[in-house]
Amino acid sequence: MTNTEIIYSGLLASGISIPVIELEEVKSNCLVCGKPISKGTTYKKIVSSNFTDWDICKNKSGTHICKECSTVIKTKELRTNNFLATKDNLYLLKKNDLEEYLFNIDKYVSGDFVIGITRSFKKHNSYRCKVNNNTNVFIIREEDKEYVFDRANMKVLYDIIWDMYLYFTKDEIQTGQYQISKIQEYGLKRFKKHEEIIKRHRNTHQFDLLLYILNSEKRNKIVEERIKKHKEEKKKQKQAQKQ
Ligand SMILES: [Zn+2]
Q1: pLDDT-based confidence at 68, cuts 50/70/90?
Q2: How far, in Å, CA of 91 to CA of 22, rounded?
Q3: Which of the two residues, 49 and 185, has the higher pLDDT score?
Q4: Which residues surround ligand 1, an ion (CB under 5 A)?
Q5: Ligand 1 midpoint to CA 93 (Å)
Q6: Is the pLDDT of residue 51 over 90?
Q7: Closest C-alpha among 145, 117, 114 to residue 130
Q8: Residue 24 Cα, ligand 1 centroid: separation in angstroms?
Q9: pTM of the model
Q10: How far apart are CA 221 and CA 35, in angstroms?
Q11: Measured in angstroms, how far is the CA atom of residue 102 from the centroid of ligand 1?
Q12: With 90 as the cut, is the pLDDT of residue 166 above it?
């Protein structure tokens, strides 16, 4: 199955309401995916003059778009959500869902799947996604970017980033410009070990994605708890000194 066939099939199975696409008879190849079609919709009904993805279209001189490509282009949910699709299901994912679905992808997919991530919540991913069949190493489409995600390696990196994030800001981890006082609090030895690994990945799409999916609400709760504990300990120490 092609990328849009998988997403279309997943959409139908998921129960998400899909737009009605009127098809007409045509003997051509789909402008977007290039497959031979006997029915399709004239492309002007599907893409606007703002359409900029001509470079990925497999049949640029085509006049019609197939049912599957038309439907996924017209389904708003596929632009305003991250998604993971198989022929049997389609998961619309929020930012805070990504950690679970990326690292435990075996729980959600079997066979061919596609994955699209959005940060603009308006750009098309669907027809630009690569079809994957390996849950250990797969290709993520993130709007204009596409990259390989090696799950085991990324998990190791993610755990390190998460550990750092409990002390540093995303910005510090992203740039490598850390506050010295925080490094001292984190522990110099631990910091050096982790920064050594992080620095090999800094400025890659994968690294940026991992930083992006860190759950700040979860983090803030843990940090608040730590600060509270720290304060209580100090208070106890002071009281002990007084006695
Ligand atoms: Zn098509």
Answers
A1: very high
A2: 26
A3: 185
A4: 30, 32-33, 66, 69
A5: 24
A6: no
A7: 114
A8: 14
A9: 0.91
A10: 51
A11: 27
A12: yes
